[in-house]
């Protein structure tokens, strides 16, 4: 590179900073001419100046010209040196001028000055040399010429390169980082705004693509959020949408940007709306950038409709999305995210792949297309491995790639491990990393949400989790609202982040009366496995949660000395290692030592049964759990009898018990006392009437502090034990879906502190006891679905505190007693067409009353 090219490179670099500076114009510039960074620019330019070169350079050039004319023997050599000097003269002069203007230190160019001064002395010496010395001096002149060229081509070039970097450092440290487009250098490599092409092979997106096109082009949706779990194919779907022929015909301009977890609005706007050859204005702030974007958008709309795709948007980007709420029919926005943004636009939930599509995707990743393979896997082998991927595209791809071209033994070994309980999350780092990012976001934003997510690993895969079980857990573990409002809010938040699915069997159950027995939580198995995987990364004694699955019993369980655990939550799921003998649960000593379990500190114990035993004994080690507050027992197999309730007798901190799908004839057939128990929930349980009726102690002694009873889907409950009427601390009594229950006990009026009474979907109940009028603190009454109920008690007017009354699907009611007019505090009656007319004649007595006619929608699939 010659000196001319070097000079051009130096000042071209300065111009690319957006300053448009030349050495001839710089002298007249002020700091304001450089965007407020004039002082920093001066410092930067000082780095490329020279020293006092004029005298040294001019001395050498004068000597060369003089000696060349006087001594013909050196003419050709000196002429060549003169030409070199003439070539560098303008740049020496420019460097001298910059030095004078910028007060550049002399030391920077001392080497160059010394060469020039030594050169002048050399040329002067030539004029007095002897003939025999000419050859030596000629060689020295050639060396001088070479040294000057080398100095500019190597030394000065290296110095300028160094100075350029110093310029960048100075500008960046002072907030004046520009690139050739006039924006901050952090935005320089933003890439194209064109959507990347989708992968060559895709399955399962035909229907979503068709629905999205309909939403955009036919239904007129202007903002759509494609929401799904990480690895479900949201980005692939968005790319395919951008390249679809019908979409490209509909939209003249299709713009695409990846947002990510730490978005930079100005960078995104710059990438989307300014072409490579356009100079970007210096935005004052994000608001200014958004305003400029709107002007650019209107200009683009002059030539056709605009589709904007924002990919990978995370929670916390609400303010960014607000900038893209365009108020025009010609511009539409599609967002992909793991999160809900209901305030931004309509949500499209992308589902996992069905079985056929999952097989197709896995085969494409796992089986070489060219046919070269150690073997051709059987359809049964492929199907079983695919089944463990749960329809998640990313899982299918990473597992498929790991088996691609491998011998049959590798395939069979992988299936064996998966069948024995190893999850895909355990073995595939790429999948784990993708899913983990959602959990890391929880950790950054809301530690409580992360804790709640981790707790979901306590329940078996592929099972519906009752929201009420989670409410019981979290109320005691995290001191959340005991009525479940905070817990349900957390479930909604986790659902909005695609970390679980929250559904209700009745569409308005929770929003009307705050009763969450109809709310069900479902979670993708890979997310459950991730929670378990994370828990296993800690030492057993340090874990907050201890998950034990007897279908894949951990090694530490069978050790002679089991490690002690301080877990606050313990979940135990039975497996094939359980066997029955004479109807009782027997654990072979060589396989499991129940009594050696060292878990004294749990506050929540969850037992998940999934076997064919007729009886299960509560394990003896429960006795040592002095801190236990919540016991949840759920049977996922056939109905079983649960025994050994005496182990609960010494647990003074036990506050909540939830039993599901078990027979409990001996629940109260002991001398145990649960004096601090506050809530008991019995779901699909059997022989509960017998359990309380055969109690050897008074119910009031055993359950002295009971405040809430929930009985749901207990098919053999014929009558509620009269002893329940003596539980004077009881606040809530909920009985639902008990088809054989015919009546409430006459003494129910003794429940002086009862505030909530639900008698829901109990088809044989034909009347309510007249003593109900004595429940002066009752504020909520629900008789929905009591289809045989023909009359209301005359004393119902005594419910002076009643605020809300639900009475849908009560076709047998033909009239209301006159005392209804005394319900002066009644605010809301939820009814249907058959009962709304009964209230019309009483409305003028009840000025605060609002009648709501709502039809009930039941999701029978969830039930």
From TrEMBL:
<protein>
    <recommendedName>
        <fullName>RPW8 domain-containing protein</fullName>
    </recommendedName>
</protein>
<dbReference type="Pfam" id="PF23598">
    <property type="entry name" value="LRR_14"/>
</dbReference>
<dbReference type="InterPro" id="IPR055414">
    <property type="entry name" value="LRR_R13L4/SHOC2-like"/>
</dbReference>
<dbReference type="GO" id="GO:0006952">
    <property type="term" value="P:defense response"/>
</dbReference>
<dbReference type="InterPro" id="IPR027417">
    <property type="entry name" value="P-loop_NTPase"/>
</dbReference>
<dbReference type="InterPro" id="IPR032675">
    <property type="entry name" value="LRR_dom_sf"/>
</dbReference>
<comment type="similarity">
    <text>Belongs to the disease resistance NB-LRR family.</text>
</comment>
<feature type="domain" description="RPW8">
    <location>
        <begin position="39"/>
        <end position="190"/>
    </location>
</feature>
<dbReference type="Pfam" id="PF00931">
    <property type="entry name" value="NB-ARC"/>
</dbReference>
<dbReference type="InterPro" id="IPR036388">
    <property type="entry name" value="WH-like_DNA-bd_sf"/>
</dbReference>
<dbReference type="Pfam" id="PF05659">
    <property type="entry name" value="RPW8"/>
</dbReference>
<keyword id="KW-0611">Plant defense</keyword>
<dbReference type="InterPro" id="IPR042197">
    <property type="entry name" value="Apaf_helical"/>
</dbReference>
<dbReference type="InterPro" id="IPR002182">
    <property type="entry name" value="NB-ARC"/>
</dbReference>
<dbReference type="GO" id="GO:0043531">
    <property type="term" value="F:ADP binding"/>
</dbReference>
<dbReference type="InterPro" id="IPR008808">
    <property type="entry name" value="Powdery_mildew-R_dom"/>
</dbReference>
<keyword id="KW-0677">Repeat</keyword>
